[in-house]
């Protein structure tokens, strides 16, 4: 049986250069030979306990353990589900009930993972990993990515924006956020080094700056929100590093701040359904920020015949669809005519506009989905969760301060159901939400209102709720 491309690419480098640095951190160095042995041992334990196609949950946050888990899962032809360390128990329980993993990997001795078997397992043949994103129906949805799509996407990223043998990439993103997969696996599939950042790096610009000074990674990847945080904290930059910026819209102002701080600045774009990133643009001027061109093996176009339309993605890297949601899969993944013929396309829900040179400029969303600090959030999921509270009759969530990216936040307007007992207060509602939603999905501001504004058609007037 042929093994997935991620494992074979890694093993090729491990056999040829067993003493090369695979993972480097403040705790020391793990060579390719050592990592291969650890991954093979973990894979053997998975194979003894599970059958190929089993789903394995990963309950860890260390990128070094994440890389080990992904390699072992590939070697054993299992699928991996990285769990969000920020998820409250109820939110996590809902995902686990939907996914039904066969086992959970948890940190054990330094650099090792224990395998804990779970009952009532499901099977996921050909799936490399499952990641949950926010869902408009009130429940998160699991995106399934195949071993082949992951291998193809890493091959494309190795070419553009580019990473080659001997180079390194900083790994600091939460493992439940799919761009972390590029940080952990791209270096290991090209013969490079993963620089595993310590806890807190993605939240503290001072820790980030110190890690970059010590290890001088060739590639630094982060969301616009984090880059703004680093710039505001006085980060001087890393002249020897390429900066990848994605997960939210890159503005001209941010591009002007970042370009002098790195060797090259790349604007990268792509939803979880297209496997990490789908396109890249080398930013040569702050006034020229686009989505660029699709990565090798992939395609990107707009729906319709005019200069504007929905952004469609096709080719290498497309996910298999949504876990246990065939109707939603059929709705978002469907054949469309493209410049290369009829192809299966993922309908992103993002709008774009063609420029004169054929590149696509990002215009925003078509629906209630937003990007906040790099995380994809369906406002409907927050609203449906709020409306399950016994004292809430209606709720609307909007994005506030869109004109000021450094202050952009979520605001919830909540209509309280009249009750004979004590009324609902904001503090108790915040505590209630903390048990049900991850921190990034909890509104920064909650306003209790008697009623919501309506349009003449009787619909909620969201525009009236959005304040500068």
Automatic annotation (TrEMBL):
This is Amino acid adenylation domain-containing protein. PROSITE patterns: AMP_BINDING. It holds the Pfam family AMP-binding. Residues 10-323 form the AMP-dependent synthetase/ligase domain. CDD domains: A_NRPS. PANTHER family: FATTY ACID SYNTHASE, NONRIBOSOMAL PEPTIDE SYNTHETASE. InterPro entries: AMP-bd_C (IPR025110), AMP-bd_C_sf (IPR045851), AMP-binding (IPR020459), AMP-binding_CS (IPR020845), AMP-dep_synth/lig_dom (IPR000873), ANL_N_sf (IPR042099). GO terms for biological process: amino acid activation for nonribosomal peptide biosynthetic process; secondary metabolite biosynthetic process. Gene3D superfamilies: 3.30.300.30, N-terminal domain of ligase-like. Residues 381-459 form the AMP-binding enzyme C-terminal domain. Transmembrane segments: none annotated. One of its GO terms (cellular component) is cytoplasm.
């Amino acid at each position: 049986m042929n093994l997935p491309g991620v494992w074979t690419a890694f093993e090729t480098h491990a056999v040829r250069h067993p003493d090369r640095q695979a993972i480097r951190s403040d705790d020391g160095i793990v060579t390719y030979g050592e990592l291969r042995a650890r991954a093979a041992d973990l894979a053997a334990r998975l194979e003894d306990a599970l059958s190929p196609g089993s789903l394995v949950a990963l309950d860890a946050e260390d990128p070094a353990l994440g890389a080990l888990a992904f390699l072992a899962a590939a070697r054993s032809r299992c699928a991996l589900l990285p769990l969000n360390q920020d998820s409250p128990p109820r939110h996590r329980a809902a995902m686990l009930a939907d996914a039904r993993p066969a086992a959970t990997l948890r940190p054990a001795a330094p650099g090792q993972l224990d395998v804990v078997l779970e009952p009532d397992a499901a099977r996921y043949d050909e799936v490399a990993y499952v990641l949950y994103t926010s869902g408009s129906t009130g429940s998160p949805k699991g995106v399934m990515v195949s071993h082949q799509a992951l291998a193809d996407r890493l091959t494309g990223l190795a070419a553009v924006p580019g990473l080659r043998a001997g180079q390194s990439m900083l790994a600091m993103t939460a493992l439940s956020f799919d761009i972390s997969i590029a940080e952990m696996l791209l270096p290991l599939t090209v013969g490079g080094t993963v620089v595993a950042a310590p806890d807190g790096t993605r939240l503290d610009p001072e820790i980030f700056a110190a890690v970059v000074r010590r290890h001088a990674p060739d590639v630094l990847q982060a969301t616009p929100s984090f880059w703004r945080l680093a710039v505001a904290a006085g980060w001087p930059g890393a002249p020897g590093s390429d900066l990848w910026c994605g997960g939210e819209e890159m503005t001209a102002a941010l591009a002007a701040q970042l370009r002098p701080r790195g060797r090259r600045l790349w604007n990268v774009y792509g939803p979880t359904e297209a496997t990490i990133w789908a396109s890249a643009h080398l930013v040569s001027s702050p006034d020229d920020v686009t989505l660029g061109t699709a990565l090798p093996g992939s395609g990107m176009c707009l729906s319709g015949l005019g200069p504007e339309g929905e952004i469609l993605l096709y080719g290498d890297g497309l996910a298999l669809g949504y876990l246990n949601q065939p109707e939603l899969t059929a709705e978002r993944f469907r054949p469309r005519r493209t410049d290369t013929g009829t192809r299966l396309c993922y309908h992103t829900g993002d709008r774009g506009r063609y420029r004169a040179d054929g590149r696509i400029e990002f215009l925003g969303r078509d629906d209630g989905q937003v990007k906040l600090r790099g995380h994809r959030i369906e406002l409907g999921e927050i609203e449906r969760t709020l409306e399950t509270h016994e004292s809430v009759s209606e709720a609307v969530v909007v994005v506030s301060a869109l004109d000021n990216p450094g202050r952009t936040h979520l605001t919830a307007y909540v209509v309280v159901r009249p009750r004979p007992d004590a009324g609902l207060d904001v503090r108790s509602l915040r505590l209630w939400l903390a048990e049900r939603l991850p921190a990034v999905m909890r509104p920064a501001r909650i306003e209790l209102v008697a009623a919501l504004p309506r349009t003449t058609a009787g619909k909620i007037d969201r525009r009236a709720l959005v304040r500068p």
